[in-house]
Write a structure and sequence with these properties.
The structure is a single chain. By secondary structure, the protein is of the alpha+beta class. Strands 1-5-4-3-2-6-7-8 form an 8-stranded antiparallel beta barrel. The radius of gyration is 27 Å and the shape is globular. It folds into 3 domains: 196 residues, Beta Barrel (Hypothetical Protein Pfu-838710-001); 147 residues; 132 residues. Helix 13 crosses helix 14. The chain is 53% helix and 18% strand. A hairpin with a 2-residue loop joins strand 4 and strand 5. The protein has 15 helices and 9 strands.
């Protein structure tokens, strides 16, 4: 897997590459070297991958033959996942087909286009011979199959970052433009070819009035649906932080649907399904967080305080549980229930059930933010009425949940100062809650260690550390609350 960072340019048939010497850090210009590339692109019959800017191809020739899956990450940046060439030219390797299930949802992947490219490659290197930027001058023949195949021919230039930096890539692009190149009109060769032959479906988003409450809410929900879809392949590959990001997107949508039910209605079933999906993702994420937490704490202890196989029980054993949780995630993400959730999210963005409030000015939504914060205040005062100290500590989790919802609501509306204040409450209570959960896990693991005849001294040390962390956060909270309450009063 790699990140592909490149700038693409349209050029006329008689274009001549400019002199690229003298660029900062470039001591050698290697090439050009020529390659013949033949790539067959796969998609669903209704182009679900192309609609999201995804390309999946089988390519022969050049320096990197094989299967290539490219997933958009940002403008000009794509994540590329490769797989060796297979004997079959018509069946996508299951490993890659699984990574686009969130987009295909079980629809077949078939050849939709072929690109025959004569490529001339020039490489800019530094004094150590390290490739910095690669310039590919491509003469392309594209064919869309059919009873009457559609054929297009064109020329384009790509400048791709290898080991150089963004500034160098920008300087290369500047020279290419001065020589007559212009920024590419399409994000990829495939998009250029397909759009010339047939209509590529777009991502449907409901039309709402400019500056309306509906525009704000639907726009936010659309961004979170996109976040779920973009994280899906990364979750399947168990990439770092992917489960967390996908889970957060689910939580943000649930929060928005609750907070803005006066704008978008009839979403109760979807909220329940988002709760289910968050739960599916949560097990692996929680194990990952607590395993890394224990690892950092153990690394900071003196050696004489570590007795018995505590690292194995709190490390590799938890990691095994994490792997099992990922297996359950993959199973869920391959099931009809998950596909139904994704269909419902598409419908939510494309054909939401909007109320009359959706047509009102966006400024009217600020009342929702104020209401959301009042919910935090009520939760805080309810906790203060609890006499038992232990029960009061446990109930603080409800304050944290309310603060998180207030934060998400403020984020929807672009009320960054309010979101930051709510986050401060959420974070300090999160530290407390994390310490409580860690203690519970340590008690359970110590019990298992005791039954196995292992020394449990270190579990006691770790429990003491976690209790101290939780206590510090709990004692700090009144100060954070007082400061936050005063600041929010000025904002609202």
């Amino acid at each position: 897997m790699a990140l592909e960072i490149e700038d693409k340019f349209d050029v006329p048939a008689d274009y001549e590459l400019p002199d690229l010497s003298g660029l900062p850090g470039c001591d050698e210009i290697a090439g050009p070297r020529s390659h013949q590339l033949v790539a067959v692109y796969f998609d669903t019959p209704d182009l679900r991958l192309a609609a999201r800017g995804i390309t999946l191809r089988r390519r022969r020739g050049g320096t990197d033959p094989g299967w290539h899956l490219k997933l958009p990450r940002a403008k000009g940046v794509r994540q590329e996942i490769t797989h060796p060439l297979t004997r079959s030219v018509k069946i996508v390797p299951p490993e890659l087909a699984d990574l686009v299930l969130a987009f295909t949802r079980g629809a077949p992947l078939t050849p939709v286009a072929e690109l025959d490219t004569r490529r001339s490659v020039t490489v800019l290197r530094n004094g150590a011979g390290v490739a910095l930027v690669e310039i590919a001058d491509d003469r392309v023949k594209g064919t869309v199959p059919g009873q009457e195949p559609h054929v297009e021919r064109w020329r384009e230039v790509e400048a791709e970052l290898v080991e150089g930096d963004g500034q160098l890539l920008a300087k290369v692009g500047k020279r290419l433009r001065k020589a007559g190149a212009s920024p590419a009109g399409s994000a990829s060769k495939l998009a250029r070819l397909l759009s010339a032959a047939r209509e590529i479906p777009g991502v449907e988003v409901a039309r709402t009035g400019k500056g309306s409450a509906g525009e704000v809410v639907i726009g936010y929900l659309s961004s979170q649906v996109a976040a779920v879809l973009s994280q899906d392949p990364r979750v399947r590959r168990a990439e770092r932080d992917a489960v967390h990001q996908m889970r957060v997107a689910c939580r943000r949508m649930r929060s928005a649907l609750k907070s803005f039910k006066t704008v978008v209605k009839d979403t109760e079933t979807l909220q329940d399904e988002l709760r289910w999906l968050s739960g599916v993702l949560g097990e692996a994420r929680d194990l990952e967080v607590i395993r890394e937490r224990f690892s950092r704490t153990l690394d900071g202890l003196d050696g004489e305080l570590i007795t018995g196989p505590v690292r194995a029980r709190l490390g590799s054993d938890l990691l095994d549980g994490e792997h099992e949780a990922y297996d359950r995630i993959r199973q869920a993400l391959g099931g009809e229930r998950y596909f139904a959730v994704l269909d419902a999210l598409d419908d939510l963005v494309a054909t939401p059930v909007l109320t009359k409030a959706a047509s009102r000015p966006a400024a009217t939504l600020e009342a929702v933010a104020a209401k959301s914060w009042r919910r935090v205040v009520r939760a805080y005062h309810a906790v203060q009425e609890i006499a038992d100290p232990g029960e009061r500590r446990t109930a603080m989790h409800e304050v944290r949940k309310s603060a998180k919802r207030a934060r998400y609501t403020a984020e929807v509306l672009g009320m960054s100062k309010l979101a930051k204040r709510a986050e401060a409450v959420q974070e300090v209570l999160g530290v407390h809650q994390d310490g409580v959960v860690a203690q519970e896990r340590l008690t359970a693991e110590a019990g298992r260690a005791r039954l196995a005849g292992e020394d449990t001294f270190t579990y006691g040390v770790l429990t003491g550390i976690e209790r101290a962390r939780a206590d510090r956060a709990y004692q700090e909270f009144p100060r954070v609350w007082e400061k936050t309450a005063k600041a929010v009063a000025k904002l609202l």
